[in-house]
């Protein structure tokens, strides 16, 4: 019996060692990244460009966020950009365009070399690292890629998507930590003479200017929903566009000589604040925590492209957690 047991043990050992040996011998080469297996079509001023997600993301990241914002903010931004590219849907002839006002900004290599000079290689290495370390990660809500909106900065709170576009359950107003020390130009001013204000808005009034601004009606996030000026009503977005204000978070007052818009933050205010992401990263939050804060109720998922003609539309998803601790 003892001999049989020893023999059995010996057999098991050699079998498992042989198994290990075989495993070592036949370890396959590392699988290419999900991003490098995902083709996409980017619409640029020079026409459509075919590339992979791995080619696209570092150059979009370069156009959308300063490299100095740090690894976790860059990773959060990379996930938001990947999610936008996967969601697509804005253009029939491509996945997304290179216009920051529509999809997301994107710069090509010559533009970045001209901008960065001898820092090009180091900067691109940092951006590629942010992309590679989040390979395949994107945000989902109800199993679908989200509209991962982002903006430069908010003062105190981000905006509800319903106040700008249509309401989405994960694009709701949340706190944002950036201060004037973190974000240059977080508070900006625009001065407009009474004559310019009247002409631009088409006002017809005989009242003195100090009586024109009757009411600024805030939305749920505290930004200007609408304003009543000399008896006419305007939305915050209309005034933002007409007077080139950096956001709809503003006050408007007559200072005795002119009208003064005092504006907080920069951008539409919906989704992730980039300066907020940098501030959170500086506090020690990782990219998953930053994304969970700005896109509440979403999950961070991993995709692996299928071998079909349109892999970005045919993805298998494995959920990973993005919840706050
Ligand atoms: Zn677009």
Describe what you observe in this structure.
The protein has helices at residues 2-25, 53-64, 71-87, 109-116, 120-132, 161-164, 194-201, 236-242, 274-282, 287-294; strands spanning 39-44, 47-52, 96-97, 137-141, 144-145, 150-151, 156-157, 175-176, 187-192, 213-218, 224-229, 232-235, 250-254, 259-264, 272-273, 299-305, 315-320. The model is unreliable at 6-25 and 307-325 (pLDDT under 50). It is built from ten helices and 17 strands. The strands form six sheets. It has a four-stranded antiparallel sheet with strand order 5-4-16-17. Strands 2-1-3 form a three-stranded mixed sheet. The protein folds into two domains: 35-181 and 273-320, no CATH class; 187-264, no CATH class. Helices cover 34% and strands 23% of the residues. The protein is an alpha+beta fold and 325 residues long. It binds zinc ion (ZN).
In short:
With 325 residues, this protein is of the alpha+beta class. The chain is built from ten helices and 17 strands.
What keywords describe this structure?
elongated, disordered C terminus, 4-stranded antiparallel beta sheet, 10 helices, alpha+beta, 325 residues, 34% helix, 2 domains
